[in-house]
Amino acid sequence: MKIHYKDLLHMENPLFENTLAYAQQLDQQDELREYREQFYIPTQKNGKPYCYLCGNSLGLQPKKVEELMLEELADWKKHGVEGHFEAKRAWLPYHEFFTKNIAQIMGAKESEVVVMNTLTTNLHLMMVSFYRPTDKRHKIVVEKGAFPSDKYAVDSQIRFHGYDPSTALIQLAPRAGEETLRTEDILQVIADQGDEIALIMIGGVNYYTGQYFDLEKITQKGHEVGAMVGFDLAHAAGNVAVQLHDWNVDFAVWCHYKYLNAGPGSIAGAFVHEQHLGKTDIPRFEGWWGNDKDTRFLMQDKFQPIPTAEAWQLSNAPVFSMTPLLASLQLHAEIGMKKLTNKSKLLTGFLEFLLLELKSERIRIITPTNHQDRGCQLSIQVKNSDKALFDAITAKGVIADWREPDVIRIAPVPMYNSFEDVYNFVSILKDCL
């Protein structure tokens, strides 16, 4: 079959073939194929590269990282404290080097984003400002099966304000016999309990099912009932195209170590819509790096917030935690989210096609089949919660992810994964089945 890669991009249901030659032809026509060479692929003891499909947990290391890290170490060695001003990339404004690229990835204005802290820390900081409960309006909406850290955070915020999570937390659950949420059901819950809801805070892409929620509609409905709306975009940032400013999202938080390849436990990010910026009366936990830059070093005892999302910063930049993100963002800036999501649609569609070709009763895909309702992750549910299948593919050189009780998460990342990776994975899975 003669393959025209660009034609496939415009097909709602691309026509795939189940052959290695077909996968290799797709790779040859892939305009992003050279970016794979910009990353280190882990290798097995036999010297062969792993089939790495775990970018939804930890992205691979860009080869540029080591060079940038050595530059920062050299500047520390050479300049000491003067590196804050004299380093090749001055440390004092270090967080500002990320603003433009992050704003583009998150669909935000530059004034609305900041790179700081870690994800759950940022979530707590945002809820200090945007979860302002009253006796009548104090409930928080989350999706049932949210990432545990999010659940812990919202539970603790509810208790901190003197309420009981058992009554103040609304957990959105799928219909009986279904694995994912329907948008109309989410909107109906918000409408029905709107006068009691203070905050809607769900994950943009659910970590377990891989479902990408309709954030625009959820935000609109939330605002209609008078609630604040925020999102944990840990599994969405760099994976799906979001437009946080245009959708009028109040706040969002995310990490950079998954699809943005910034390394384990790396620096995180936050978004605050411009309508909330520059306010001196908004509740906020304050730190000196959020203070106005012109007066920060005058050591005054009154906080003057920076009129951007930077006002939520607490401390100066952890340079060595931030540096790897520079390398990854350089690549993202070259490619752009449109090209990444275009390839992601094909790559994930090819994976879905091959999995369905197996016709196995032992597994099923629980991620939505509509590409608009997912990113690059497919969640494969294993019958009887049998982890032996996951152990078997791992032994054959696949790096994937098992999530209790019964799901193997597979994420073909468009930045560095190939169609041949996908084909090889399904071939291994078939053998193990």
Structure description:
This protein is of the alpha/beta class. The chain has 2 domains: 5-60 and 336-432, Alpha-Beta Complex (Aspartate Aminotransferase, domain 1), CATH 3.90.1150.10; 70-332, Type I PLP-dependent aspartate aminotransferase-like (Major domain) (Aspartate Aminotransferase, domain 2), CATH 3.40.640. The protein has 14 helices and 13 strands. The chain has helices at residues 5-9, 20-29, 64-79, 83-86, 99-106, 119-130, 148-160, 165-168, 183-192, 215-224, 319-335, 337-358, 388-395, 419-432; strands spanning 51-52, 113-115, 139-143, 169-172, 197-203, 228-232, 251-255, 268-272, 363-365, 378-382, 398-399, 401-403, 407-410. The strands form 3 sheets. The protein has a 7-stranded mixed β-sheet, sandwiched between helices. Helix 2 runs antiparallel to helix 14 and helix 6 (119-130) packs parallel to helix 7. The radius of gyration is 22 Å and the shape is globular. The protein starts with a helix and ends with a helix. The relative contact order is 0.16. The mean pLDDT is 96.
List descriptors.
433 residues, alpha/beta, Aspartate Aminotransferase, domain 1, Aspartate Aminotransferase, domain 2, 2 domains, four-stranded antiparallel sheet, 35% helix
Query: What number of domains?
Result: 2
CATH class designation of the largest domain: Alpha Beta
| Strand coverage percent | 5-15%
Intertermini distance: 29 Å
Précis, in short:
With 433 residues, this protein is α/β, with parallel strands linked by helices. It is 35% helix and 12% strand.
